[in-house]
C-alpha cells in the first residue's frame, strides 16, 4: 500500500510540474506547499501526500520535531476561522498560548504564528510547541515545531528559515483568502491547565492532525 501511494504521489508531482521534476525540491502534493530544503541539522523522517493533503516530518538530534501538514480547506474557511479553531482545541488540551504573531510565506500568503507552552502529564519538564497556520482557498497548511522549552531559542532561526522559503499554494484569482485578515488576539484568553494531555508534538505525533481535522471548526 505504501509503495502504491508513493508511486501515485510521484506521478501527481510530475503532472503538477509538467514533467520537470527536481530531486532537490521537496514539492509536497500537487498544490499545497513547496519547500526547497529542510533546515540545517534536521533529517527527514517521513513524507506523504495524497491529492494535495500532505505531511512532511523532520527531526533534529536534540529531539526537536518539525512537521509541515496540509489539509483541504472548506468553502468559507478563513485564517480567522481556522485560527480560532486551532487555539481553542489546544487550550482544551492544556496548552497555554504565550505569543501570537502575523507572518507571511515566501510568496506572500498571510499566516499566523502561535507559540504555546505545556507540561505533559506525569512530567515536570516544560515543552514548547509553535504552530504557523496558513489558509488558502484550497488548503490549510500548518508548520509545527516542538521540543523541550529550553531549546526553543536554539531553533528560532530554523523556523525563520522555513518561513523565508516555503511557498503556499492554492490561492484563487479574485479571492482574498490568502491575504488574511489576521485573527484577533487570543493570548489573553487561551490559558490551559498546568498539566497537558500525554500527547507530545513530534515527528511521530502531530497535534495539528486533531486541531485541523476535517470536522467542522469549533465556534
Quick overview of this protein structure:
This protein is 20% helix and 31% strand. The chain has helices at 2-16, 79-92, 156-165, 208-211, and strands at residues 26-28, 33-35, 43-50, 53-59, 65-72, 96-104, 110-118, 127-135, 139-148, 167-168. It starts with a helix and ends in an 8-residue tail after the last helix.
Describe the structure.
- The protein has helices spanning 2-16, 79-92, 156-165, 208-211, and strands at 26-28, 33-35, 43-50, 53-59, 65-72, 96-104, 110-118, 127-135, 139-148, 167-168.
- A seven-stranded antiparallel sheet has the order 3-4-5-9-8-7-6, with helices on both faces. A three-stranded antiparallel sheet has the order 1-2-10.
- Helices cover 20% and strands 31% of the residues.
- The protein has 219 residues and is of the alpha+beta class.
- Mean pLDDT is 75; it is low at 1-29 and 198-219.
- It has a single domain (2-211), classed as Protein Transport Mog1p, Chain A.
- A hairpin with a 5-residue loop joins β4 (53-59) and β5.
- Residues 207-219 have a biased composition (Acidic residues).
Amino acid at each position: 500500500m505504501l509503495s502504491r501511494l508513493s508511486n501515485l504521489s510521484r506521478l501527481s508531482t510530475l503532472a503538477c510540474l509538467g514533467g520537470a521534476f527536481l530531486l532537490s525540491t521537496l514539492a509536497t502534493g500537487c498544490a499545497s506547499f513547496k519547500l526547497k530544503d529542510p533546515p540545517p541539522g534536521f533529517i527527514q523522517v517521513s513524507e506523504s501526500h495524497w491529492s494535495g493533503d500532505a505531511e512532511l516530518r523532520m527531526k533534529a538530534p536534540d529531539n526537536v520535531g518539525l512537521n509541515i501538514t496540509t489539509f483541504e480547506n472548506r468553502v468559507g474557511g478563513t485564517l480567522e476561522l481556522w485560527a480560532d479553531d486551532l487555539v481553542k482545541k489546544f487550550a482544551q488540551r492544556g496548552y497555554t498560548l504565550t505569543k501570537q504573531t502575523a507572518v507571511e510565506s515566501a510568496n506572500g500568503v498571510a499566516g499566523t504564528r502561535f507559540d504555546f507552552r505545556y507540561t505533559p502529564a506525569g512530567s515536570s519538564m516544560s515543552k514548547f510547541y509553535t504552530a504557523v497556520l496558513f489558509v488558502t482557498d484550497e488548503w490549510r497548511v500548518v508548520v509545527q515545531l516542538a521540543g523541550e522549552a529550553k531549546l526553543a531559542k536554539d531553533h528560532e532561526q530554523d523556523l525563520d528559515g522555513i518561513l523565508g522559503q516555503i511557498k503556499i499554494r492554492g490561492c484563487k484569482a479574485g479571492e482574498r483568502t490568502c491575504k488574511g485578515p489576521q485573527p484577533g488576539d487570543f493570548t489573553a484568553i487561551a490559558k490551559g491547565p498546568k498539566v497537558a494531555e500525554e500527547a507530545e508534538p513530534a515527528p511521530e505525533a502531530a497535534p495539528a492532525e486533531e486541531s485541523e481535522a476535517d470536522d467542522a471548526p469549533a465556534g
